[in-house]
Design goal:
The structure is a homodimer of 444-residue chains.
Chain A: H1 11-20, H2 25-43, E1 46-49, H3 51-66, E2 78-82, H4 109-116, E3 120-125, H5 153-160, E4 166-171, H6 177-183, E5 186-189, E6 209-214, H7 217-227, H8 245-250, E7 259-261, H9 272-285, E8 289-291, H10 299-314, H11 316-322, H12 328-339, H13 342-365, E9 369-373, H14 393-398, E10 402-409, E11 415-421, H15 427-442
Parallel strand pairs in A: 2-3, 2-4, 7-8, 7-9
Antiparallel strand pairs in A: 1-3, 4-6, 5-6, 5-10, 9-11, 10-11
């Protein structure tokens, strides 16, 4: 690792350097703050960042370490939190003027867990309006004329621009995997319920997931290990045995993985350069990949019906008291959601177990992971749209873990992610399979 | 116990008599069948009863015992199952001509669990149409001109009439506690999710509960011990530590319980004789009871919104293919359910955790159980209506355990139950509290 450029260290490297005393947390955080000062004017990843407060946390971390106390796996390492994750010491505004100046009294479960692991909460990253589709101010670090994607725009961009090694976001449609693909970083949207959502803005209980952004797969596993766990405040969280994600992700697969290349019925909407890049990847993987057509029914419609209805409920107060300060597109969506019949909502939800069962068989019978685009192409030009989650919704609906790896580039030089999807609760193996793929591609 | 009248034994007594060889299962089942032959023409509790098949199971149970194999806690004891509980060896018609002749290929989870405990599945008891409000043929054993209540009409009546010592039913509104009150037996509707519903007709996932009918509290605990447990087919079932219900229910409370007498906003709808009977009971309990007013918001409306919407989904196929063979009242209900907005449905559901939290505090701070009517009075005259679940819906909505004890009688001599309600997962203690109440009243 290159200790002379601390902001470029991975979270695992940084944690190791701090633990060994090669660098102090204050030095690490100072280096990241200095880098942020350089790049933030162009990228605009943060909605709240108080350098003094970050340094104060770093000083406390350093003092704790010097006192001989045992240190956590992220001791002294700065992380970014999407601004829908409550923090007791910083505002949390959910990307809406309606929540401007909102200061929660308690940390979200994931914020507490990260602090318990020793992390420095660097600041709050830009989210689209209530984690939906209306963009914030963030720009793509690879080209400020392009969207970073959304809704976890700031988290993806901050990690991509080297401002922090690790950030949390959330995905209800494609809000983690898509911006990670556009910004050229690794990201994981784990199994539904694996990371508790207590203390986060709830958009859709059925489809909301916490996700992670990092510049290495190892960091995704390291981060997941800190924030996966049971929390009784999240009704979809369950007590489970602790999984050693980092260890499993680092292991060699017993056999070379076999991938199911899924073009989806939306392949014609994939940009030609992205189609070509996938063609080359599939060719490169040879007998380790097979093209598979999956049944998905009306999954995208079902996901929309469910989220529209749940969004309407979760934003009912905002709609009633301040709809004029919602974006027109969100207003339209809420109006649509308010008209959804319970019958259609429940019938859409009832489709999910069947879909999941079908996909589970696919993994049991033959494949290690689904290989499919993370997005229809590179980051679209302009900042008006955060792009289309059409390649993410099905897996989000099914609560299956998805990871994106920044393996390819488009004709314009912008990054292009490869999405891998695994069976529910196959998060650790999915990370292992992703690592195998990265190494295989690197080997040429 | 009076071994000379085997049909009048409790399930615990019968199981003990069989285990000790005082009576064979065949003798026990024969005695019950003979009694059924006498009283069934007036009561009409059964929709399927094959004496040969019951005796065949009893013979197998006797052979197993004589072979020296270890026997289960209900070995050789006949039980009745509401005809919405699937049985692989008998039809399950869900109280509708639309499902006439339906023969499931698998046992419901509870049927398997009872068989594993050694029980003889005596037959299938009458349910109202799809466990809703349109009555079946069953009459009240105490007066055939009165309703037995519903929807678990046959299970309540069969136990009350001494045909079987134990029967299972289900409650989505008041379908266990109300018929038990009308028929003068003990019944338990345990915590939501505690008894798995896999393989039963689903009316409303959010409010459906399995319940038990017996002639003693001990039998409720014995039965619960056999059918409480995790089943992955029921999404509301959870793995939990095994609770020794019978042991706890038999224990002496460390302190005399304190009851919260809850009249509810519907007290004026309680019949005068029932009001008077409650007044006497409360007086008798002296300082062990306090009148408490509970907040319940619009709980009855919320319960209706949720169940109407879920009923519409769960009967969507029947409505589409055979609505002319549904009762007019069920048709009306489904039509209403199909119009419920997802917004209203989800907002109703969102009210439940707050209600539950409020009631939980009540138990944590002061009271052992809520004491409240099981029904607005004794069984109404006539067979057109199964009575009103107005005193049951709130606890069903909240998934809290409720037990009814046949402590009182109306002016007409018909039975009148006292309902006790406990905190979620307080099932064992609720049974213990109920036993204390019964003994206290018996002590005069």
């Amino acid at each position: 690792m290159d200790i002379s450029r601390p902001h470029s260290l991975s979270a695992a490297e940084a944690a190791q350097a701090v633990a060994r005393g090669l660098i102090s947390s204050v030095e690490l955080v100072q280096a990241c703050l200095a880098h942020i000062k350089d790049v933030e004017p162009a990228v605009q990843a943060w909605t709240f960042l108080d350098p003094d407060h970050a340094l104060q946390q770093a000083r406390a971390a350093d003092q704790l370490r010097l006192s001989g106390a045992s240190v956590g796996p992220l001791h002294g390492v700065p992380v970014g939190l999407k601004d829908i994750i409550d923090t007791a010491d910083m505002p949390t505004e959910n990307g809406s003027v309606l929540h401007a100046g909102r200061t929660p009294s308690r940390d979200a479960a994931v914020a507490s867990m990260l602090r318990a692991a020793g992390a420095i909460i660097m600041g709050k990253t830009v989210t689209t309006e209530f984690a939906t589709r209306t963009p914030g101010k963030t720009r793509n670090p690879h080209d400020p004329g392009h969207t970073p994607g959304g809704s976890s725009s700031g988290s993806a961009a901050a990690v991509a621009a080297g401002m922090v090694p690790l950030a949390l976001g959330s995905q209800t449609g494609g809000s983690v995997i898509r911006p990670a693909s556009y910004c050229g970083v690794y990201a994981l949207k784990p199994t539904h319920g694996l990371i508790p959502r207590t203390g986060m803005f709830q958009l859709s209980r059925s489809l909301d997931h916490v996700g992670l952004f990092a510049r290495t797969l190892e960091d995704l596993a390291l981060g997941l290990e800190q924030v996966a766990g049971y929390d009784e405040g999240d009704p979809d969280s369950r007590p489970r045995a602790r999984v050693p994600y980092r260890t499993i992700a680092a292991e060699e697969p017993p056999l070379p993985p076999l991938f199911a290349f899924v073009k989806t019925p939306r392949w014609s909407q994939v940009a030609p350069d992205a189609q070509e890049a996938f063609g080359e990847l599939v060719e490169h993987l040879g007998d380790r990949v097979e093209e598979v057509e999956l049944y998905e029914g009306e999954a995208i419609d079902w996901a929309r019906t469910i989220t529209d209805a749940e969004v309407a409920v979760n934003l009912a107060r905002e709609w009633e008291t301040g709809r004029d300060r919602l974006s027109p597109s969100l207003r339209t969506r809420i109006e649509r959601g308010r008209q959804v019949l319970a019958l259609d909502y429940l019938q859409a939800r009832a489709q999910v177990p069947g879909l999941v069962a079908g996909y589970t068989e696919l993994f049991e019978q033959r494949y290690d992971a689904i290989l499919t685009p993370a997005a229809p192409g590179t980051a679209p030009k302009g900042l008006e749209s955060t792009g289309d989650p059409m390649f993410n919704s099905v897996w989000t609906l099914c609560g299956m873990p998805a990871v994106t790896v920044p393996l390819m580039r488009g004709a314009n030089g912008l990054p292009l992610g490869v999405q891998l999807v695994g069976p529910r609760h196959g998060d650790a193996r999915l990370l292992r399979t992703a690592r195998w793929l990265v190494e295989r591609v690197a080997a040429g």
